[in-house]
Specification:
About 25% of the residues lie in helices and about 25% in strands. The chain is an alpha/beta fold and about 300 residues long. The chain has a 7-stranded mixed beta sheet. Helix 1 packs parallel to helix 6. It starts with a strand and ends in a 10-residue tail after the last helix.
């Protein structure tokens, strides 16, 4: 048995779910994604989204509407006669008429343990807040912001060595498997839904680049989680010798000193409490590099200062 599905997604996070649904025999009648944006070396070439690239390789029809709120967009959507729509980081609001169009509804894969971290940046916010775990959930969509009834969930521990990219990649794979299981249950009429709790609601606001500067006066674990929550993008940064340096990976270390002070020849840096050791950095205009390579180009001794 299989379902006729419309798939709606945009970034690389969404691609494993699309591929797994096809691999498990579901018919993807159309893929909706965001329109190509200028990119490439000079910013002149239109770059399709990762989802569009994957869909075109598979020969699936791709649509990139600017809005879903017009009668024409609704008519086009309805014409696919889908059993359900699967939505994974699509990036566009679905109006009620679209949500009502598929026979069995629209189902979203969200990268948090709802109702915690509803909204745009749940992966980053979970790490930055020091959460012990994250996860993925499948919910039946309504017009609210990630407020729909939840069907299934998988949990994943967040460790101190995990960056946003690390967690993103693991949740992407975990979520693909979860959505396949959810669609199988929906197909056989056994997908059970329950309302989200009213307790513990938090919102994962979009990351503002103004948040990216490192505050060395904070305790070491908070600094580490801030760095890892913003890695690789937009990248937490500090000033060193009047130049901006992004710090992309670090670990907890022993040591005390003035906040931002380099404590040794191995890039151990003091925080408000404790210290971290910098493992991966990126100078302005340069490629990211390991600490040892960075030190060959910027030899730092104890007493140097990150600001």
């Amino acid at each position: 048995m299989s379902l006729r599905l419309i798939f709606m997604g945009t970034p690389d996070f969404s691609v494993p779910t699309l591929l797994e649904l096809i691999a498990h025999g579901h018919e993807i009648v159309a893929v909706y994604t965001r329109a190509p944006k200028p990119g490439g070396r000079r910013g002149l070439q239109l770059q399709p989204t990762p989802v569009e690239e994957a869909a075109r390789k598979l020969g699936v029809p791709v649509l990139t509407p600017k809005t879903l709120k017009t009668p024409e967009a609704l008519e086009e959507f309805r014409a696919f006669d889908a059993d359900a729509a699967v939505v994974v980081a699509y990036g566009m609001i679905l109006p009620q008429a679209i949500l009502d169009a598929p026979k069995l509804g629209c189902y979203n894969l969200h990268a948090s343990l709802l109702p915690r971290w509803r909204g745009a940046a749940p992966i980053n916010r979970a790490i930055m807040a020091g959460d012990a775990e994250s996860g993925v959930m499948v919910m039946k969509m309504d017009v609210g912001l990630d407020t729909g009834d939840v069907a299934m969930a998988e949990r994943l521990a967040i460790t101190d060595n995990m960056t946003a990219r690390d967690l993103h990649d693991r949740l992407s794979r975990l979520g693909a498997d979860l959505m396949v299981r959810a669609m199988a249950a929906l197909d056989r009429g056994g997908l059970q839904l329950k309302p989200q709790s009213e307790d513990g609601v938090t919102y994962a606001a979009k990351i503002d680049k103004a948040e990216a500067r490192i505050d060395w006066t904070r305790p070491a674990r908070e600094v580490l989680r801030h760095i890892h929550g913003l890695s690789p993008f937009p990248g937490a940064w500090a000033e060193l010798e009047n130049a901006r340096v992004k710090i992309l990976r670090c670990e907890l270390a022993n040591g005390t000193g003035a906040p931002g002070e380099v404590l040794d020849d191995h890039l151990t840096v003091a925080c408000g409490e404790g210290a971290i050791r910098l493992l991966e950095l990126q100078r302005e205009g340069k490629a990211r590099m390991q600490a040892a390579d960075f030190l060959r180009g910027v030899p730092l001794k104890a007493g140097a200062q990150f600001k």
